[in-house]
Amino acid sequence: DIIMKKLLKGGTVVSGGGTVLADVVLDGEKITAVGLPEEMAQLAGADAEVVDVSGCLLFPGFIDAHTHFDLHVAGTVTADDFYTGTRAAVKGGTTTIVDFGTQYPGETLAQGLANWHEKADGKCSCDYGFHMSITEWNPAVSREVQDMMDEGITSFKLYMTYDTQVDDQTIFSILRRLKEVGGITGVHCENSGMIAALQEEAKAAGHMGVSSHPATRPAAAEAEAIGRLLRLAEVVDIPVVVVHLTCREGYDVILEARRRGQKVYAETCPQYLLMEDSLYDLPGMEGATYVCAPPLRKKADCECLWEGLASGQIQTVSTDHCSFTTEQKDLGKDDFTKIPGGMPGVETRGILLYTYGVDQGRISLEQMCRVLSENPARLYGMYPQKGVIAPGSDGDIVVLRPGAEDVITAENQLSNIDYAPFEGTKVTARIEKVFLRGQLAVSEGQVVLEKAGKFIKRGKYQFGTL
Ligand code: DUC
Ligand code: ZN
């Protein structure tokens, strides 16, 4: 391919700070110029490949900082691995994922990381980084945290529930260590003891079906754990990320900590913005496809989360993509606690945020750009390599056509599962093209470039830049 330069003509460039009609020059893997048509044409030169993107919005490639690909969990393994998962991601406009490398029982962090590199290496159709999930803590693991930072793993994940959970003392020690090395952690906040007790009660009463799922993981369990985490972080004096926030109760706890002067970041996901817990009452195992933790909540919670996005109190929208087939979901047909928890999402996050967020007037284009691209790039040490369309940044660009009519169906999806949670949902945007570091990866909505993704060594989170 001798034509190295590309000129994207006629589009509207979106950033967190505004939108502007501008042409974009790509040279090799990078964006080299953004500006007025005549100037850009001159900079690109007569040999540049001209790509007509008129009528389209150009976003910096979306970043999904919460995926679970090829993860062993609940006695099975997620249906999407790095091959199918990143193909689905890039089709949906996501040019970078940050997956959760996991320290399985008995492993060092180095072993967990090596395992994740092996899973991802050569298989990814978008760029990728890893957080490390710390599930066992001792002095040797504590020393390894610096090694992770040196390897570009600058963020971590802790669970307050599941068998991967760490207790309060451990969380406190880990936060102390992260403060020393300049790391940041996302935390899955749910009170595991309360959930275990409620599950036992439900089962003792013979309530074995899917409809028991939401009531046994109440919003109070999430809000309590968020509060506990934030008090631990307060004493250590370190910013933390509350991942997949679902409810008003938790939101209020976060706002309260901010009023005390704490730095707290919050993430939510499309399913928590758009779906309600009444789905768990669907007949048979239909509701099982919506089982995730924390669970879907009420309409008022969805509204609260949209408000949080609009006001900037919630900084990122990720997916928590953790997909299982209906056959895998059937593992819990006699006992709802055995349903593998998780929903897909990487393929539809952008078009859903556009349709329900921007098009329906809940958030602005700039806010959409911030929560899908700019903020995760800043928070996870990738800005300005990622997260912005500007000279010097990677040529990761989503070409989104607003006003298109499309319908989400399982039949057309690339995710390796036999259903789509948003089946039949009408969307008003189509992702026509995606550029991954200057290369056309999606054309006419089809993935045309596979396995071109590379590992992104991330920098430290810079306090105060978000
Ligand atoms: N929640 C899920 O539903 N699945 C994966 C991990 C998580 O936190
Ligand atoms: Zn998750």
Biggest β-sheet description? 8 strands, parallel
State which percent range the strand residues make up: 15-25%
Which stretches are low in confidence, meaning pLDDT under 50 for 5 or more residues running?
Answer: none
Largest beta sheet: strand ordering: 8-11-12-13-14-15-16-17
Whole-angstrom Rg: 21 Å
Give the termini separation.
39 Å
Percent range for helical residues? 25-40%
Q: Tell me which ligands are bound.
A: dihydropyrimidine-2,4(1H,3H)-dione, zinc ion
Mean pLDDT: 97
Number of strands: 21
Tally of DSSP helical segments = 13
The computed structural class is alpha/beta
Can you characterise this structure?
This protein has 13 helices and 21 strands. It has helices at 37-44, 82-91, 109-120, 139-150, 168-181, 192-204, 219-236, 248-259, 270-274, 299-311, 326-329, 349-359, 365-379; strands spanning 5-9, 12-15, 18-21, 23-27, 30-35, 49-52, 57-60, 62-67, 72-73, 76-77, 94-102, 127-133, 155-159, 184-188, 240-242, 264-268, 316-317, 397-407, 426-436, 439-443, 446-447. The strands form four sheets. An eight-stranded parallel sheet has the order 8-11-12-13-14-15-16-17. A seven-stranded mixed sheet has the order 3-2-7-18-19-20-21. Strands 5-4-1-6 form a four-stranded mixed sheet, with helices on one face. The two termini are 39 Å apart. The relative contact order is 0.17. The mean pLDDT is 97. Dihydropyrimidine-2,4(1H,3H)-dione (DUC) is lined by residues 68, 188, 292-293, 320, 322, 341-342.
